[in-house]
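BACKBONE STRUCTURE TOKENS:
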Amino acid sequence: MAPRRDNTFNTLFTSVGRRVELVRAFQHAYQTLGLRGDVIGIDIDPLAPALRVANRSYIVPRLESAEYVPALLRICREERIDLIFPLIDPDVPILAKNRPALEALGVRLAVVSEEAAATVADKWNTLALFESANVPRPRSWLPGELDPERAEYPLFIKPRCGSAAKHTFKVGNARELAFFVDYVPNPILQEYVAGPEITSDVVCDLRGQVLAVVSRKRLEVRSGEVAKGVTVYHSAIAAACIRLAEALPAIGPITVQCLMREGVPLFTEINARLSGGFPLGIQAGVDSPRLVLARAAGLDVDLPPLGAYQLGLYLTRFDASFFLTEAEREQMAGRRL
């Protein structure tokens, strides 16, 4: 998609939340590309920090509300949106389902198909994708498939359809297994792999072509998002990420997670969206916002060789604050269409 006759190209991020670095990185990419346009952020919370740095922001109904999609369509029409990125997992199936209505407005989505969205939303189905793509994975079971008295502990339990590391636990024995199988909603069980955990940003364009793969070891996680990490490169991980992007198939950036055991990656999950830790890849030399924006806007851009980024670069995060008066909060809350 080329920019319109007025040479503008507008991008919208759903559920923009705390992703201040992401918004700023895309704004910087606009500048380096010489691309005119704005970054629009939407969220349900007037105090979502990233709303303060987006060029324009709107408050929308909750995803499960019948009013969410009509509100999104109105914003896309009013703001002449060209491209949408989801930023949390629950956004993905809703955007995928409503692709025809959004594309009718001239919007393109960095969002996988409905079928692919259903696959990555269900971790059991994701394991089947790994098998079909010949990608190694931990041994896994549904609760009724495992004899608690004969199981090899420790195990790991998590919801089939979960995100942000909620309801995930290490299971040490049969008594704990009985408790967590009842406590965790719709769970799956896996052999426990101590790690380390490697997350890879698989930067794909809207046609699914892999533009770059950047991997990092997660050193500390907060609410499912990396708080400390370091860039690494592993040829088997990069090759598997490319196979998975093709098998899914990817549309826009995805995130692939694996755990290392004796030097062998065991793949566990795919998040069909931009990761929270992608700024580390940018700093390491892979400007993923610039790559994706350029491809989406029909601009020429040079692709980095696979693995051509700075290794051993650490990320460590801290909190920063915005301050709003009551009047400013009310003004933000009133940004609805």
Summary: The two ends are 26 Å apart (CA to CA). The chain has three domains: 10-111+322-333, 117-122+194-316, 139-191. The mean pLDDT is 94.
